[in-house]
């Protein structure tokens, strides 16, 4: 029995930080650092949770290539169970991430993020106290029937179900396609842009109510530098972000928030304590480059 099974995206990030505004030499720019880091929502969550001492497995797709091997080796090194990783892809997704000196970032991705040929088997999410759908509405979690089957498989064993949303890549996906399983989601973690997109609202309170009115038990809106806004079975409240001396890189901050929150859920803590644990973990993550300390 695992404490957590994380499923979703697995990516190798090439992170360029602090590029100078003009060429160092003709056609050559100099950056503060250029480093490879494992990334993707499922990988970031898995590593953070394993680092907290939890028994974690990851369910994802990789290719039998160099980036896939790097990700697999790193997950194994930190103690994440990789027995449910499928190496069926043609290419492992690789992202170029450009990080400004204030920690803000932009990314460049390829068609490999479509994860063509990979579909999650519901049996791979069995045997856990908590299932985390780490990138809902993005491959491999953009097919509604697959998502429904995963949620039902986890709930059949009494597992807690968490879902961290993403904005869709290909089509205008909505919550309507998951209406019959939304009440089975215990915790939903959209950021402010995702919450606005899926709720059609502009106010945090209205956004949160739009989700809970559909049956989701608790919604936790990640509001970046503001902190988070929470509505659930224990009430409704906002918490400020935990201050840090310097923001180095916001890559994976949301994934770390979810990991900190999940760890507190499994400790049996209340909703406000779980949110604070998420904010503390997110604050730790933004003080270094990449989605996790490596």
Task: Throw out a few tags for this protein.
8-stranded mixed sheet, 294 residues, globular, 14 strands, UDP-N-acetylmuramoyl-L-alanine:D-glutamate ligase, 28% helix, alpha/beta, single chain
| Count of individual beta strands | 14
Proportion of residues in helical segments: 25-40%
Rg over alpha carbons: 18 Å
Give the neighbour order of strands across the main sheet. 4-1-9-10-11-12-13-14
Q: Can you identify the CATH superfamily?
A: Ribokinase
Count of discrete structural domains: 1
User: How far apart are the first and last residues' alpha carbons, in Å?
Assistant: 27 Å
**Number of helix segments?**
7
Top CATH class: Alpha Beta
CATH topology: UDP-N-acetylmuramoyl-L-alanine:D-glutamate ligase
Query: Could you spell the SSE succession in H and E letters?
Result: EEEHEEHEEEEHEEHHEEEHH
The coarse overall form would be: globular
By secondary-structure content and strand pairing, the structural class works out as alpha/beta
- β-strand amount: 15-25%
Structure report:
This protein is α/β, with parallel strands linked by helices. The protein is globular and about 60 Å long. It has one domain: Ribokinase (UDP-N-acetylmuramoyl-L-alanine:D-glutamate ligase, 3-Layer(aba) Sandwich). It has an eight-stranded mixed sheet, with helices on both faces. It has a four-stranded mixed sheet with strand order 3-2-7-8. The two termini are 27 Å apart. The protein is built from seven helices and 14 strands. Helix 4 packs across helix 5 (204-212).
